[in-house]
Design a protein that fits this description.
The structure holds two protein chains of two kinds. Chain A is built from 17 helices and three strands. Chain A is mainly α. The longest helix of chain A is centred in the N-terminal third of the chain and has 55 residues. In chain B, a hairpin with a 2-residue loop joins strand 1 and strand 2. The N terminus of chain B is likely disordered. Classes of the chains: A mainly alpha, B alpha/beta. The structure holds adenosine-5'-diphosphate and magnesium ion. The site of adenosine-5'-diphosphate (ADP) has 10 residues of chain B, from helix 1.
Chain lengths: ~450, ~260
């Protein structure tokens, strides 16, 4: 009997040992698979970031022509700016000023620029056309504005910075092959040679591109195209989503989670909210176009409309995030509050919501960030229009960062806008990162773990 | 079957024909029970027999549970607490509750105790509130241990201290009845002893109903004991009698089974 029990135990132990081995093997396999999946994910993210940053960061610098410019009174042949006569009315004075400014428009600023380059190399004889090909077209207007602002510069020599033409930038940065035959080059040989020479002499440098941040999009002058309009558009929309979707979403989540009676009606609402979160974003764009623009006659391309559409889109996400944050608050806290005689409202606002707040805010901010990256619905409400001004109110025409990225990506000046697009993506990502960091910071601040 | 409660005391809380349903299953199948003024009644019985459910009907904590329905009446000083005119907020201030797991608010010790008086508007000014907090903590036997750290989190205390904090929180609103659902089940023996001593002291001022799994505890703290079985009260008698000469064979089986 005794030996029988013993042998049975031995057998059992043996079986256990065998099973144990199998268990260990499975564990190792699982851990390995998990590690592999994580690494793969990380690799993709790393690849994405490296490729975007490596293309986008260089685009923050831009070929800039930095040369002394003689504002030749012969070329800028305008009379002295008007001064107000003692008896002159305001209107009359303004009219004279406008007339003087119009005179400035007729000045050949191109000639001033061409002369400036010619002065660098007195021995050479450049064609004006070749010299002007160096500058992006918006720069002569800047020269004019400079003189209009301060007429005393006429007759003096100023060292000024001009953005080089996009093609020059592409050429100097090697974004087009130097081995291509002339027929396939974007610039004539003489311009290329001049650009190379000026770069070698330090007259063309890579400088930090303020234009990218301060200018709006530009059609005629690619090199001065910037993001400020799109950035402001996105900012307005972000504010609208923050002010609209977040409070409305949080309030409805609190109501649904804590106060709503459970009946068919609330069930229908609940199912719809969950479904709404899965509706493709472009559908919201259609809705915005039909309802807000078609019915309420709100203006096309306005950040207000974009913000409303994005709010609608963010709403279900905010509601779902808030509800799950509320659900995560332990029932013991609710019991404690109710048990002492707190009303339901007091329970929610004194105890449940403060505990859920970090989760609520994180969810809300992620929803905002998500909607900020949305492109498709904005295309349907006309936010892909070309807008040359920075919007100053949410009713002005504007575009948005993701839409700007989309537009630049499709620009025919591919080898210039490729980098520009990547730079815009970097700005968008930075904005998202900022929002996310804000969420993390809020979370850390509010999550006073008792 | 039900013996007359102790003489010379008024009925504080009385349940008449109470039935409780979770959706359609009856958890309490008709209970008549009276709690006398300033009396400690222990609820004992096997797990799942409805002790907690019944306890929670006494201050309408069941209102918060979906699908829970109560029939019959519960009279507090002769008034039905389930009458439509009754405000649960007022009711729960009069009938306080201490839960199985200590559940202080994730706030400071002071805030924990001060919260009830604040929402019920009991204190006139800060000094008054300070007094209430100190009084309550003293009565809960916690004052000396926490008086130097009132601003520290209540959740940072030991389990036993947390439970006493919860008791202080409950008595801070001057309830008439305190319901305790296995208040010591999460505590070690020393903390348990402290709570039991506290209950004995509090019984001079409050009517107390306590659910317990420990027969010794029931014997130590209660005047009367009610034995619950499958949603009914099978026997309720003076504690000593329940433990020495149970009337009902089921009670006897439970008690002897437990004692070995
Ligand atoms: N929230 C609830 N929903 C549904 N059934 C419940 C709920 N709470 C308790 N019950 C059921 O009611 C009966 C009594 O439970 P309870 O009052 O917790 O017993 P006890 O406290 O005596 O252990 C049990 O059968 C239990 O399953
Ligand atoms: Mg229980």
């Amino acid at each position: 009997m005794e030996s029988h029990t013993l042998s049975t135990q031995d057998v059992l132990h043996e079986r256990m040992a065998k099973k144990l081995k199998q268990r260990h093997r499975r564990e190792r396999l699982f851990k390995f698979a998990g590690l592999l999946a994580t690494c793969l994910g990380l690799a993709f993210v790393a690849f994405l970031f490296i490729s975007i940053l490596s293309r986008g960061i260089p685009a923050f610098w831009q070929s800039t022509i930095s040369i002394p410019v003689y504002i030749d009174p012969e070329l800028v042949a305008v009379e002295a700016p008007p001064e107000r006569e003692p008896q002159e009315s305001q209107a009359a004075f303004k009219a004279r000023q406008d007339a003087w400014r119009n005179g400035l428009m007729r000045v050949s600023w191109n000639a001033v620029l061409a002369a400036a380059v010619a002065d660098l190399y007195p021995q050479e004889d450049f064609a004006v056309r070749d010299v002007l090909a160096l500058f992006t077209s918006a720069e002569r207007h800047r020269l004019r504005d400079l003189v209009a602002q301060d007429p005393s510069v006429i007759g003096s020599t100023l060292t000024l910075n001009f953005l080089a033409h996009a093609n020059v930038d592409v050429w100097l940065r090697g974004n087009i092959s130097r081995d291509l035959p002339d027929a396939q080059q974007q610039l004539p040989p003489k311009v290329r040679a001049l650009a190379d020479r000026m770069a070698a002499d330090g007259y063309i440098q890579q400088r930090f591109s303020k234009a990218l941040f301060l200018n709006t999009d530009s059609r005629s002058s690619a090199a001065s195209a910037g993001l400020s309009g799109a950035f402001m558009g996105s900012l307005f929309m972000m504010l609208i989503v923050l002010l609209l979707a977040v409070p409305v979403g949080v309030a409805s989540a609190i109501y649904l989670e804590e106060f709503a009676p459970e009946n068919t009606w609330t069930n229908v609402v609940e199912v719809n909210i969950n479904n709404l979160a899965a509706v493709p974003s472009i559908v919201f764009g259609l809705l915005g176009a039909a309802l807000l623009i078609g019915w309420f006659k709100l203006p096309l391309s306005a950040p207000l409309v974009g913000g409303l559409v994005l709010s609608l889109m963010a709403l279900p996400t905010v509601i779902i995030a808030t509800r799950s944050a509320l659900q995560a608050v332990p029932s013991s806290v609710r019991d404690a509050a109710l048990g002492i005689g707190a009303s339901k409202v007091q329970m929610v606002f004194h105890h449940v919501l403060p505990l859920a707040l970090p989760g609520v805010l994180t969810g809300a901010i992620l929803a905002v960030a998500q909607s900020l990256g949305e492109t498709a619905p904005l295309l349907l409400i006309g936010m892909n229009a070309f807008v040359a001004n920075v919007p100053s109110t949410p009713m002005d025409q504007a575009t948005a960062l993701p839409v700007q990225i989309f537009l630049w990506q499709g620009n025919e000046l591919r080898n210039f806008f490729e980098a520009r697009t990547a730079a815009a993506i970097v700005v968008l990502l930075a904005m998202m990162l900022g929002l996310n960091l804000f969420a993390v910071w809020l979370r850390k601040r509010l999550e006073k773990r008792w | 079957m039900q013996k007359a409660p102790q003489q010379g005391r008024d009925v504080k809380l009385s349940a008449r024909g109470v039935k409780v349903f979770y959706d359609d299953t009856a958890a309490i199948k008709g209970i008549d029970l009276e709690l006398m003024d300033k009396e400690v009644v222990a609820f004992i019985g096997p797990s799942g027999c409805g002790k907690s459910t019944f306890l929670r009907t006494l201050n309408r904590m069941n209102d918060t549970i979906k699908g829970c329905r109560v029939e019959g009446e519960v009279l507090l000083d002769g008034e039905d607490i389930y009458a439509p005119s009754v405000d649960v907020v007022m009711l729960r201030a009069r009938v306080g509750m201490v839960f199985q797991k200590p559940n202080p608010f994730p706030k400071s010790i002071y805030e924990n105790v001060a919260y009830g008086p604040k929402i019920h508007g009991l204190a006139r000014g800060r000094g008054d509130l300070d007094d209430i907090v100190e009084q309550s903590l003293r009565r809960a036997g916690l004052w000396d241990e926490v008086k130097d750290r009132l601003n520290q989190p209540g959740t940072g205390l030991s389990g036993g201290q947390q439970q006493r904090l919860c008791i202080a929180r409950a008595i801070a609103v001057s309830p008439e009845v305190i319901l305790m659902d296995e208040p010591c089940s999460a505590l070690d023996p020393i903390a348990t002893t402290k709570i039991e001593e506290l209950i004995a002291e509090l019984s001079s001022q409050f009517t107390i109903a306590i659910v317990t799994h420990s027969m010794q505890q029931a014997a130590r703290v209660s005047d009367r004991t009610a034995y619950f079985h499958l949603g009914e009260v099978i026997e309720v008698n003076a504690t000593e009698q329940v433990f020495t000469q149970p009337e009902n064979p089921l009670t006897e089986a439970y008690i002897t089974g437990r004692f070995g």
